[in-house]
């Protein structure tokens, strides 16, 4: 894993906008989809995975983002996808193996 020396000098903040949508019925009985934006902020540093900082970042009225100095100790450490261990529910795996053996 890359060294974490001077992370603040090689980091930047990036935003993604996600939407949460609900299905409702209009007064006329027709389906109505309502979506609400959810802004998410990430700190992206050279050589290490991005970390979400939405809950710890302060955003002012002009949209400027301020990250508290002690935030690095509070944030989880990320790791590259190639190092993520994926756990599979054995019952799901067994049912897939059974259906493949019948085919």
TrEMBL record:
InterPro entries: Mitochondr_Som1. It comes from the Eukaryota. GO terms for cellular component: mitochondrial inner membrane peptidase complex. This is Uncharacterized protein.
